[in-house]
Amino acid sequence: MTVAELETPALLIDLDIMEANLARMAEYAGAHGLRLRPHTKTHKIPELGARQMALGAAGLTVAKTTEAEVMVRSGTKDLLIAYPVLGRKKLDRLMKVAGETRVTVALDSEYAARELSGAAQKAGREIAVLAEFDAGLGRVGVKPEEVVGLARVVSSLPSLKFDGITFYPGHIKQWDSAGEVAFQELGKLLKKVCGESRAAGLEPRIVSGGSTPTWFRSHELPELNEIRPGTYIFNDRNTMKSGACTLDQCAASMLVTVVSTAVEGQVIIDGGSKTFSSDLCVGGGVGHGCIPEAPGSVFRRMNEEHGYVDIAGTETAFEIGQRLRVIPNHICVAMNLHENVFGIRGDQVEKCWRVEGRGKLQ
Ligand SMILES: Cc1ncc(COP(=O)(O)O)c(C=O)c1O
């Protein structure tokens, strides 16, 4: 099948670019002695998880228990649930996953640790735990000075193994001066947290962090020994804005059709918020994606099934029925909206993947 034969809107993955992205990260991690445990919330496809493992990843990461149930099909020997798992049903399901692969859980409370310990004991399993601290995002994670206390609790609980420390540097989205300062602060914080943990006799075997915007600077953090980038496999407009990739490293694009030119200075495409997600552009950038073939156009607004593209500033001519490719702002959320995505090479459709982890939110 050719790309021209696909119905729109369709999420396309340029396989040459994706393969280069995967290889680049694997090489970087290998060259700097970093474990790579990619976050699979971006692609949600076990076959792609298997590819990451084949390229030397030490394991894979998911956010939710139901995602873990899907991603275990990749054959990974190691799965990190980078999210506190609460509630008996979820924990019992997770223990089943732990029967198939080694499971590690990131958590930030005694409550979550005790629940996990209870479920692990009941299931007769040992679960590895990473104590999460807040490195500046203000989302989850104990205060840096509370890491030792949390690690002690984890170490004292039956069926849990304290395996190290984790954080997510999601507050560093761009390499402007604020991003640079935050990165330097992160380095100091990591040194302090790891030092205190060691001094307390709690050796963090794993120090896990890393994101796509920060991936190429991970080796500047000496304490870090594991990175978990997710978006890098495809990249998106926000990754471009962060400075962590270029346009020709963006593997994912939305193939859309111009369905109306009725309003002057504007075209309507057949994808809106149900196709792209409503995620905004980092750093206050305008629009919901970019259209490289129409420089100066602005994907200004969306309804559920309509995308409003302002064409006043572009020289490109548009007509009804014309097809365009749009690089979305945030590919991870867009993937979650699509039942199938298409792997292409040139104008050939080589793969149709079911997004097996889409909608797996529990
Ligand atoms: C805990 C955690 N680790 C890793 C990642 C991957 O980061 P990125 O999307 O920048 O690749 C995320 C992304 O949301 C995350 O929440």
Give structural notes.
The protein is an alpha/beta fold and 362 residues long. The chain folds into 2 domains: 3-9 and 244-354, Beta Barrel (Lyase, Ornithine Decarboxylase, Chain A, domain 1), CATH 2.40.37.20; 15-233, Alanine racemase (TIM Barrel), CATH 3.20.20. 29% of the residues lie in helices and 23% in strands. It is built from 10 helices and 17 strands. It has helices at residues 15-31, 46-54, 65-71, 88-98, 110-123, 147-156, 177-199, 237-242, 273-276, 331-335; strands spanning 10-14, 35-36, 60-62, 78-81, 102-107, 127-132, 160-166, 206-209, 226-227, 252-260, 266-269, 289-290, 298-302, 307-310, 323-328, 340-345, 348-354. Strands 1, 10, 11, 12, 13, 14, 15, 16 and 17 form a 9-stranded mixed β-sheet that branches. It has an 8-stranded parallel β-sheet with strand order 2-9-8-7-6-5-4-3. Strand 3 (60-62), helix 3 (65-71) and strand 4 (78-81) form a beta-alpha-beta unit. The model has no long low-confidence stretch (mean pLDDT 97). The protein binds pyridoxal-5'-phosphate. Residues 39, 82, 168, 211-213, 228-232 line the site of pyridoxal-5'-phosphate.
